[in-house]
Amino acid sequence: MPEVKESPRVAVYGLGAMGLEIVRILYRRHARVVAGIVRPGSDKDGRDLGDLAGVPGLTFPARGDASQALHEAAPDIVVVTVSTYLDDTQFGIFSTAVRAGAHVITLAEEMLYPFATDNPLARELDTLAREHGVTVTGTGHQDAYWVNLISVLAGSTHDLGGIEGRLAWNVDDFGPALAEQQRVGTTTEDFSRWLAGTERPPSFTHYSLYALAAAVGLTPDGTAECVTEPVLAERDIHSKALGTTVRSGTLLGYTDTDTLRTKEGITLSVSSQGKVYDEHETDYNEWRVTDGSGKPTLHLRNSDLSTAHTTCASLVNRIPDVIAARPGIVTVDQLPQLRYWTGLHLA
Amino acid sequence: MPEVKESPRVAVYGLGAMGLEIVRILYRRHARVVAGIVRPGSDKDGRDLGDLAGVPGLTFPARGDASQALHEAAPDIVVVTVSTYLDDTQFGIFSTAVRAGAHVITLAEEMLYPFATDNPLARELDTLAREHGVTVTGTGHQDAYWVNLISVLAGSTHDLGGIEGRLAWNVDDFGPALAEQQRVGTTTEDFSRWLAGTERPPSFTHYSLYALAAAVGLTPDGTAECVTEPVLAERDIHSKALGTTVRSGTLLGYTDTDTLRTKEGITLSVSSQGKVYDEHETDYNEWRVTDGSGKPTLHLRNSDLSTAHTTCASLVNRIPDVIAARPGIVTVDQLPQLRYWTGLHLA
């Protein structure tokens, strides 16, 4: 396992909106950004990382030849911001970094708790990381707002019956790929057809509820469900991410309500609304803890959230924890409490 | 150090409002309450603990002979809910428990971070606890709401400039001793005279800011200040704790605003309003994180808090962490993340 250093060498794999924001944060905090990786042949391949991120001083090109670039740059850790699920492509990216001897930290939502499903790639990646003595961890906004703030909150009750979350995020903050994934602009008929299809992977919050259960110390009983409902535009609203207008009566996005039951009889649930916002709307994150009789006892709300900010910042602050962790896939419930990385404080 | 067990033997030292609530929680959660200790000669001395707490099944007397009672009951841990500051009396209580070979967990506010001041009793107690192989920790509402939720929140920003808290608690929830300490019912002249006196000890939040600094990973630069302002009744309001009416124009309580500066240039502050509530008021806890330019970036609010509930519940949930910790005084920033004690889940 590479030695923990004050200022580790960081590569960023995936230079979309999130990847470039992470490059900017790392640069401002005087971390050593040593490589930027893009899809081979993408229009960013070969362009200067500093130009792409809008910061001076990073005068080396983004590269499409990931394996070669990582071996040359020898990062301590690779930040991966490519996609959501642990599929074959994502596995290929992670294993390229692992084989280059680097830790991996990622925003891929499935990686927050990849053992929530029976994904054989999670076991394979865990084995590979252990063999190479490196750690692989998924983090992001969820780490603070859907898992660790909530497990601390639940630590202040003496009779835990359930935990219920409600949250909203603006599809327009995350680029066109996610807007399409949230079915923005489709009709209710299209949505129903899509929903009835069998291919839909678990929602983001599916993974976070498993991580929350682990952080609280609960054992899922094997029954998890997700109810998905469309959110319709009541008037024409412009989508920045898509660059088009969402017509009244079509989808601004949808709400997933995930529920996870545990052997302790404690039920965890979260309603996540991802949609194109109207003018006055802002992100929020709200949770209630109920007691054994279902009565609300504790409450926490984060208003005026900038989910894109907290997503990238939480990842950056987790870098020293991931470097110091044991080899293998290590989920955030097994890391120390999330905190500001004072070693890289912006002076 | 005693072995960590699923259901440790717990003694409760101090059977006021908080102590008896903790007895009830422990009883409902099937912990083993093995002794209740009161001041020798108090009117509770010799009365059945079950009668005092209003629970059946604890059919043994509260005892005034602490040392003898603790040696007989052999608790793994002693819960101490007697007073706020680490003075000679409190030191005597802690050392009686430590000499009986028991860990100590306490609501004494100074013990949240006793090294915030140059209190020689803290060093002496630390040495004594190490000699006896036991841990001494201060916890309570502050652990979750003034320290750990806030350090997690700060872990989701990339540019930490400051942390500001605002909170309110109802003096009437905590009995007559605290109501007198909050100067309830006194005149502004009395208050000014009292404030000008030199004997006033640091506020509760003084200690919590040092604990927060430690949890975030910051180093206080030696400049801490507290500004105290009276909160006056605008009409006659009944105080349950004192059993009298607070006359219009006299004090409902006061607000302490503590500020702590750090070597990293990050300023921590908290305004704590402790007063007798009017009918519509409830406890809240609200924090903002600002960036290096002073702009607010993150927000957290807990509404409709029951501070008495969270005070006692946080202490109970911390018991396994304290039993498992290294010997000596261990502050909450050094413990694992606060979480629900599932080993004692109320089924």
Number of strands of chain A: 14
N→C terminal distance of chain A: 30 Å
**CATH class category of the largest domain in chain A:** Alpha Beta
Mean pLDDT rating of chain A = 93
**Mass-distribution shape of chain A:** globular
The structural class of chain A is alpha/beta
Number of helices of chain A: 10
Q: Give the radius of gyration of chain A.
A: 20 Å
Describe the biggest sheet of chain A? 6 strands, parallel
The multimeric state of the shown protein is homodimer
Q: How do the SSEs of chain A run, as a string of H and E? A: EHEHHEHEHEHEHHHEEEEEEEHE
Reported CATH architecture of the largest domain in chain A? 3-Layer(aba) Sandwich
DSSP strand (E) fraction of chain A? 25-35%
Work out the largest interface and the residue count of each chain. Answer: A-B, 54 and 54 residues
Question: What's the number of domains of chain A?
Answer: 2
CATH topology of the largest domain in chain A, by name, is: Rossmann fold
Percent helix of chain A: 25-40%
Low-pLDDT residue spans of chain A = none
CATH superfamily of the largest domain in chain A: NAD(P)-binding Rossmann-like Domain
